[in-house]
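When time allows, look over one protein, given below as sequence and tokens. The question is which stretches look regular and which look disordered:
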Amino acid sequence: DNELQELIDQAKANNETEVVLEHDYVFQDGDEVVTIPENMTIKGNDHTIDANNQSGIFNISGNNVAIENVTLTGANGTAVNAIADNFTVDSITLTNNTGTGINVVGNNATIAGVVANNQTGTTVNVAGDDATVSDVTVNGGEGTGVAITGDNANITNVDLDARDGDGVVITGNNASVEAVNAFNGTGDAVSVKGND
């Protein structure tokens, strides 16, 4: 089995709510996406998880999950796929992934401190209400930087450089958008469809 999956499964079996990475991880042939259960925090400790073009990296199907301080690279498919409420990302670097970087279907998502380098596909996609997205930097690649479908989105500090695609696209009501900067790319910096 995937070594990282075993670490998470052991933490769950011991009723622990945190997994702290102590080294980098590289997926091996046949490794599949890693599942994170509800009420779990993954602390990356500035390590790197390389999917080695085997699959996506994380799948979250339970609420109250957080991923912090980690670099995710080599994903073939969505790097982080969360079907969950109260999902939190803090300080993640996405590098050379093919597919959506962070995909969330659920309410009250908090995405902060994302750096994406040569990401192919939408960097951050959220379908749900009350999403907060801040401090996202997108360098190169293609696809929308931040896409939100839902009401009451709060977007601040998004920078896109040489990105082939729109910066921030929001479909929903009562959105707040501040400090979006797009340089040397194509597409609209901000597109909002809905009521203020």
